[in-house]
Write a structure and sequence with these properties.
Elements (H helix, E strand, L loop, with lengths): L39 H25 L5 H20 L12 H24 L2 H8 L2 H13 L5 H18 L8 H23 L5 H17 L2 H4 L5 H25 L4 H4 L5 H14 L5 H21 L12
Length: 327
């Protein structure tokens, strides 16, 4: 496995991971550094709860988009998320916020913010389940991003899983079964950008505490998303403010539970449970908007789910390298 060499002018690469952050006894290879205990059953439960919060946030976004612009919703999702996060990040005993990898934090945040813009836009224009499923293609893009960005090879099993997954994407886009929705391509872009963000997180968390990674994402995303308000501002009414505060809370709770889930078991064991969001999104879509999935979309969803799980488990056997190179 190779990585791009760091130029002399760039920031100094960190040393090897702190031994104090090693996986706990009894955990399988690939268990997250810093894990206090290995509890995959509780980790799976936390992942499902996190996805319920995230999907509820997506439903709030879809409701709010009836009256508010995408630029306004994205900004306040980040602002309220940052405000709710600050008491946790700044409490005594938490790691400091000083970092030697600001460029990596910025790139990770910009990728995640771009994914958010695409995903929220898709939520406003297509059924929830389809938008959520397209965003969940991120595991299919991660091997490609890691290859182009970090020079990591793509194992044969992962490559096969990626091909199967994109066959499922073709079923969902339905190019031969009806009119192709350009909005679904935007949702697919959300998955690709989410993959770039996740790749950045995987590299950063080798040496950076998760609180620092989450804080810089919230801070950079809030500052950058404030710029489009110059041309995209929509004044919220009472219902709009309530939905904006609600989605910020839901996103914060979801992030907290998901962080805890990945602290209890490896990604290969937690990842499959993140696809529970498709079931929650389908339920919301049916209850609130009368959407029902088609057979073709269902076949595509099964292929994307199977390929995403296979790709995640195959890649979990490949150890991540320490942060090096430039973003």
């Amino acid at each position: 496995m190779t990585s791009t060499a760091l130029p002399a002018s760039g920031p100094e690469p960190p040393g090897p991971p702190d031994p104090a952050r090693a996986a706990p006894p009894g955990a399988p290879p690939g268990a997250p550094p810093g894990t206090l205990r290995y509890d995959p059953a509780r980790g799976a439960l936390y992942a499902v709860v996190a996805e319920l919060f995230f999907t509820s946030m997506a439903a709030s976004v879809k409701l709010a988009s009836a009256d508010l612009s995408n630029e306004t919703i994205v900004f306040f999702r980040n602002l309220f998320g940052l405000l709710f996060l600050l008491p946790w990040v700044l409490r005594p005993g938490m790691p400091g916020l000083a970092t030697r990898h600001l460029r990596w934090h910025v790139v990770r945040a910009l990728a995640g913010l771009g994914s958010m813009y695409c995903f929220f836009y898709a939520l406003a224009h297509v059924p929830m389940a389809e938008a959520v499923l397209m965003k969940l293609t991120a595991p299919l893009f991660i091997p490609l991003v890691a290859f182009l960005w970090l020079g990591e090879r793509i194992p044969r099993q992962v490559g096969l899983a990626v091909l199967i997954g994109f066959a499922g994407v073709a079923f969902i886009l339905r190019p031969g079964f009806g009119e192709l929705s350009p909005v679904l391509l935007v949702a697919l872009g959300a998955g690709a950008l989410a993959a770039a963000g996740k790749t950045g997180v995987r590299q950063l968390t080798r040496t950076e505490p998760i609180t620092r990674v989450v804080f810089y994402f919230a801070l950079v995303s809030t500052l950058v998303s404030a710029l489009p308000l110059a041309w995209g501002w929509t004044a919220p009414g009472p219902q709009g403010w309530a939905l904006l505060v609600l989605l910020g809370l839901l996103a914060t709770f979801g992030q907290t539970f998901m962080t805890a889930a990945y602290g209890l078991a490896p990604a290969a064991q937690i990842g499959p449970f993140t696809y529970s969001s498709v079931l929650f999104a389908s339920a919301y879509g049916w209850l609130l908007w009368g959407n029902t999935p088609t057979l073709v979309s269902g076949i595509g969803a099964v292929l994307v789910f199977a390929a995403g799980v296979a790709a995640t488990r195959a890649r979990s056997r490949e150890p991540a390298e320490p942060l090096s190179g430039t973003p």
